[in-house]
Amino acid sequence: MPRRASGAAPAPAPARNGEISYWMSDLGPVPVGEPLAVDAEADVVIVGAGYTGLWTAYYLAERDPSLSIVVLEQHRVGYGASGRNGGWLTNTITGGHDGYAAKHGVEAVRAFQTELNATVDEVLAVCAREGIDAEATKGGSLLVARNEAQRRRVAKYVDHAEKWPEEGVVELSAAESRARVNVAETRGGLWQPHCARIHPAKLALGLADAVRRRGVRIYENTRVTDIEQGVARTEHGVVRARHVLRATEGFTTRLPGRKRDWLPLNSSMIITEPLTDDMWAEIGWQGFETLEDLSHVYAYAQRTPDGRIAIGGRGTPYHWASRFDTDGLTDEATWSSLSALVREWFPVIGDVGIAHTWSGVLGVPRNWRATVQYDAETGLGAAGGYVGTGVTATNLAGRTLADLVTGADTPITRLPWVGQRTRRWEPEPLRWVATRVIYGAYRWADRSEFRGLTHTSRVARIADVISGR
Ligand SMILES: Cc1cc2nc3c(=O)[nH]c(=O)nc-3n(C[C@H](O)[C@H](O)[C@H](O)COP(=O)(O)OP(=O)(O)OC[C@H]3O[C@@H](n4cnc5c(N)ncnc54)[C@H](O)[C@@H]3O)c2cc1C
């Protein structure tokens, strides 16, 4: 990979690159809020104005309108993954079911899955209630097998679905899968209903408006340099509060003492120009399912209401010493690989242009499991580590943090991700070398499977074990 259809001309460069994301640009100019100007006091201070921080503020203000709540954001609302993601509002348990079941029992994991299914609907209900037009369509999620090894992996997912029926996954024949979305070389598929496609930035900014309407103060261009019990220090002043909550996800590595907590992994995306009606007639995709295939280096896609395809996944997964992209700027190898992939899935789109490419950063814990933490004694809390599946989980995390901070003992405060901890990532150069080796292995495994290997490559299995995925 990339594997361009033979004879096809190289795709032209994207019209726009970086600028946070297509989704943020699509909103047009949105003024950035004022920074913190002087020291302040509050009941709760939240660091980070992505979905986690905003949902936490939203539910705290709802649970107890008398609370004074401050949100501090280093750049602007939605600057992080929340303004850049693939727009899958889906029911995934980050890190999977089995690891949690081994530690917490099967029933706890069933409750977790049921809650995540309901969380998809909770997000849609809040959008309706608050007048947030996130362009949501709940069409479920389609996973497609495109070679023999991938087709055989479907059986593994079917076994898993029998064990965890709450997830709602059903097997599709190749014809059934193609009837939904006509992906080239489809050999079978899986579908589950608990997923909606959304416009990520419209959700983030709409939520920020809803939060402000409830009296929450959001300060933008205000970077927090340190967090301690009772205080968040910024470049402009300090905010003192009984409760200090960290919602910094992939950027957490920059905070003092947290360099090795969550690995900042990059994910990159492109979005096409609108396709023609003839192309859509060939592709189908009338149900707006979110879409991915069973490659090891997976790719995820959605169809937008105005007829574009947004697809993401490949690229440089990790930069030396946890360095970040500049406002989502993406290298040519990455966007051209994604551009080749979308044409491979849908040859009918020919040389349709790429409107925009961008990248973002996710937080990956050593055990690949997200977490919600709160210490009632110190008032310190945090949520994150969602890997690539936080759009729904952030809502549940925000509700859970709100319950924990207000001292409510509820079913969601007892879910298995609450309070769980994991070991830290290895120091450099091990971290950099291991990430490169693992992703190289996944790419190698995908190539072998597309060249005719009929079972899952052993190399991929070994990479899974090493990465702890
Ligand atoms: C390209 C891409 C595609 C993805 N696709 C999907 C998908 O389709 N479905 C899905 O479920 N998940 C997806 N994800 C993951 C999902 O977007 C995230 O899990 C989710 O948005 C995390 O929200 P968050 O609020 O915790 O983090 P973020 O959105 O990253 O927010 C953290 C915020 O904290 C701010 N911040 C950080 N440090 C500081 C500081 N020191 N001081 C002040 N502010 C600070 C940042 O600027 C940022 O705004 C994707 C992620 C990426 C990057």
UniProtKB/TrEMBL annotation:
Q: Name one Pfam family in it.
A: DAO
Q: Which InterPro entries match?
A: FAD-dep_OxRdtase (IPR006076), FAD/NAD-bd_sf (IPR036188)
Q: In what residue span(s) does the FAD dependent oxidoreductase domain sit?
A: 43-404
Q: Tell me the SUPFAM superfamilies matching this sequence.
A: FAD/NAD(P)-binding domain (SSF51905)
Which terms in the GO cellular component ontology are assigned? Answer: cytoplasm
Gene3D superfamilies, per this entry?
Answer: D-Amino Acid Oxidase, subunit A, domain 2, FAD/NAD(P)-binding domain
Q: Which PANTHER family match?
A: FAD DEPENDENT OXIDOREDUCTASE DOMAIN-CONTAINING PROTEIN, SARCOSINE DEHYDROGENASE-RELATED
- The name under which this protein is listed is Glycine/D-amino acid oxidase-like deaminating enzyme
